[in-house]
Amino acid sequence: MTTKNTPSTGSLQRGVDTAAARHPQRGRRYSIEELEALADEGNPWAMGKVDEWEQRFANDYAGDLSDTCPDEDCEYFGESVNVLYGEHGRVLEVDHGNWSHYPSIAKAS
Fold first, then answer.
1. Is the CB of residue 103 less than 8 Å from the CB of residue 91?
2. Model confidence pLDDT, tens digit, residues 21-73
3. pTM for the complete prediction?
4. Residue 108: helix, strand or coil by DSSP?
5. Which phi-psi region, left, alpha or beta, contains residue 22 (left: φ > 0; alpha: ψ -120 to 50)?
């Protein structure tokens, strides 16, 4: 048996080529959007960095549930939520903490 074409254990771990897990461009700073794009393409290094970013900053982006659900069609109308607004104060999404929904659209009479 020859080992000429067999990868060394240092270059292959659990079917993942560790060369692909390297920083794409050493010394370059990536934005979270760029890291997410690389992670979506399957880059293991970027996936790890996105996970680190999410763990580090998750609390900074967590809402405080200081609003109340404005959607009268919602089963939890009046419950504490975070309301995400778009331009001109239009409600885009109602975040109940563990789940969210789009506001119902009132039909014109």
1. yes
2. 667 888 888 888 898 899 999 998 888 888 888 777 766 556 788 899 988 98
3. 0.41
4. coil
5. beta
